[in-house]
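Q: What changes when protoporphyrin IX containing FE is included in the input?
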Amino acid sequence: MFYKKQKSWDMSASGLKASDITPKNLFDNRRQFIARAGKSAAGLGLGLGLGSIAGGQALFANPGAAQAAIALKGKPNMAHTLKSLGEPELTSYDAATNYNNFYEFGTGKSDPVENAVDFEPTPWTVVVDGAVANPGTYDYSDLIRPHQLEERVYRFRCVEAWSMVVPWLGVSLGDVIARLEPLSNARYVAFQTLHDPERMPGQNGFGLDWPYVEGLRMDEAMNPLSLLTTGMYGETLPNQNGAPIRLVVPWKYGYKSIKSIVRISFVEDQPPTTWNITNPREYGFYSNVNPLRSHPRWSQARERRVGDGLFTAKRKTLMFNGYEKDVAALYTGMDLKKYH
Amino acid sequence: MKHTKAVVFVACLVPLAWLFWLANTPGVGGSGLGANPQEFLNRYLGQWALKFLIMAIAITPARKLFGWSGLTRYRRMIGLYAFFYVVLHVTSYVVIDQTFNWPEIWQDILKRNFITVGMVCLLALIPLAITSNNAMIRRLGGRAWRNLHKLIYAIVPLACLHFFMMRKGIQMEPLVYGAIIAALLMVRLIPRRKQQGSNPSGRPRSL
Ligand code: HEM
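A: The predicted holo structure follows.
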């Protein structure tokens, strides 16, 4: 797949002069450029699926470059392409990496890209605990590596009534869970984001209870759509998008797709989730995209596709974000307004 | 003095000019307005509306605390600019955010509490804007005019509440605005000092 984002760093290709961009952009671009140069110099050791993530980074002489994205290859999942979604185009890489909600790095949309520049995502371990046969502390790449990295294009719908179309790289969460072998009393899976105010300056502020926690019912977690994600747009996850490992649950509002995961716990009871703790009336445990349930803050009937023109009307939001046929069966007989 | 008024008048347009500048500057998602220009415009204009409202209620405290009585002459202009930015903010909401989807807008006003509050602010500002000229002051009489304009003490905190409610979770920015507003309103509780002229009624004379 060819991504337009190439333009953002390859200045010669886009015909940009150095003076056309701000010094900060220049700086960031150069970082990415160094990372890419490092990658091609490193040559053979790379490009072998996820194994290249950890190995690749160790090869960089410049530690600053390690945080820049590294090319990743995933096998396109033909059930989740632009075409199968019926979407005309991907959201631009620039938009998807500069417009983020990631309160660990600040509440403004451009705070994450600015404040996560120096975040060093590796080495990174994930604690697996609770009702599971294979608990332990895993290097995040060990969770992923045994599986085929897939590229899946998903709609991404934020509760704030905007949406994107993003090519993620990841593996089925269900496959990873199966390998970890949950015990029979594991009815939910709980996830936790890194809590380290020194590395995540937004955690010095108040407003949310840190660490950020999320959870899924076991059958939701096992649904083939749930993606344990390590990359997007053909490269490793940028810091502001939840490096190095995050969840993507496309039929739920974006905040369910927890970022920078450090703990996966198998539990018997419904786990607490951050936005639900913060405001239970507005944010439920399930948080399925539902145009019929009006949210006290935003009508959920419509959404703005990021990248649409200034005067383009919002488009209609689809039930379960358009994934109804894949997930509706999970909720048969449930009152989705009550269990929102 | 005529000149300084013109300077202030033009200065108040700088936030708007900056918007046009951003819109015509390359940036993420096409322009300096960012990846979601609709949201940016609306929030930017809302923030400036609130800033102007705060400036308008800061003028009396500035005179009280620092004796800067020269600022009073700009108060009407600042207040009208506040209204101007509120109108732009609401216009951007109607035109760009909702693209004239009136049923949705109506639902928003009824159901989204923060928008209900914003609407109350807008409606309350209208009589103040209409009466911000000499002819109206004369027509209403000073006392009635002053009483009417006391509405601003309710509007500004409500506008800040609108801001606070709109943000997810508890965020710093609206609280900072709120603290500033609270401080400005508190200054009005300080009894008038003698040397600033006698005020036999004992009431605050102006806003
Ligand atoms: C005195 C009047 C008003 C003031 C001072 C004001 C100010 C503000 C401020 C400061 C914000 C937040 C900006 C941010 O988060 O950075 C905001 C948001 C907003 N206001 Fe107002 N507002 C007023 C009236 C209204 C009215 C009458 C409406 C609609 C009928 C409205 C609709 C909105 C909307 C929809 C947002 C949220 C935009 C978003 O979700 O990004 N406001 N306003």
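Observations recorded in class: The longest helix of chain A spans residues 23-42.
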